[in-house]
Amino acid sequence: xxxxxxxxxxxxxxxxxxxxxxxxxxxxxxxxxxxxxxxxxxxxxxxxxxxxxxxxxxxxxxxxxxxxxxxxxxxxxxxxxxxxxxxxxxxxxxxxxxxxxxxxxxxxxxxxxxxxxxxxxxxxxxxxxxxxxxxxxxxxxxxxxxxxxxxxxxxxxxxxxxxxxxxxxxxxxxxxxxxxxxxxxxxxxxxxxxxxxxxxxxxxxxxxxxxxxxxxxxxxxxxxxxxxxxxxxxxxxxxxxxxxxxxxxxxxxxxxxxxxxxxxxxxxxxxxxxxxxxxxxxxxxxxxxxxxxxxxxxxxxxxxxxxxxxxxxxxxxxxxxxxxxxxxxxxxxxxxxxxxxxxxxxxxxxxxxxxxxxxxxxxxxxxxxxxxxxxxxxxxxxxxxxxxxxxxxxxxxxxxxxxxxxxxxxxxxxxxxxxxxxxxxxxxxxxxxxxxxxxxxxxxxxxxxxxxxxxxxxxxxxxxxxxxxxxxxxxxxxxxxxxxxxx
Length: 487
Hints:
13 strands, 8-stranded mixed beta sheet, 39% helix
């Protein structure tokens, strides 16, 4: 295909061409590999290309009869493991680390017909807002390479936005699907708790806030991914729920008239005036689609919620680092191979007491109940995806290479920008970023919709209704400056 033709296809359309005999999975993989070669020197979104799988898409067990029929796919270098493949987690400490087995979700992805052809970039252990450490790599935003993609699903966002692939893997422990999708003009769904498994290395009990997912450029691709990759592995801590009907069927129908709340004042955090105007504009657009829209806010103790979220992150990441150190026979993180903030997180959280975790969980409960009560009266709450503009490359205050001596101050700085995404992880509710706004810098601005627990289908229905109203022209039909279809 020409690059323009390639970029106009979503994953569903590419799969249809494979089933129609017009193209083979190997040809799709070869074109995606060529797209990576064309864009990655500028964007640094891909850590490794699996050349053996590009040559033979069936090599690692991909089922070409699955609905995606061999569409190429990148796996974020964090989370699901691939047997025999490197997983280095954006860290010098993990250089050369090879997985011993496929994760359960990796198997579901291959059964769905997605051909995993490489690894995409992530910040160290996924613990910051940008894949940006010059000693490892610096991932840049295709819309303007002076800016970050945000994170932590940085490389996936860069490659899907640049037209290299139509769909790729992302994870979200506090916004890491939605925030980079919002800054690069993509669709990013954080599913409810109990949708995607993280077996065998963790469960919803130990993972608590982390969710798997993908970035796409079409709602139907996201819906198909959820339909075919969801479900729990044997021995899950909690039941994994299923939807009454496939989302690929549900999204063909518009939702009924929705009660949509607009909000940007979350405790101490406020969006910039420009972001508020973009949110209001999108609210008027949704009113034009027949929905009821007004300003409203859940009755949440936001200070307590963000403090609990900080405790969760510090204690979770400290244990993650501790487990990795044990694999290497180390007593503490080496300063030349682990980034400074991650060392401080390890120091601050390693000895978190049960009492501290119990207090954290109590706030998780009251926060979840408050959002639950809110969704008795409202179907959707709409916010900007971030409160502040996407940072320029080199803005170290958000990075784990920061020299900030205080972990709590560092997290507090994160929340000032990334205020609207993490509480969905705390509560286990679904949220989606839709590319409906524009920042003053010219970068895309995602608008986030959140709904009650297990109402993922409603978010996809709304996104599909918006997509139809826009005639499929997300981002006004514009393409990024760095794109496979540009010379």
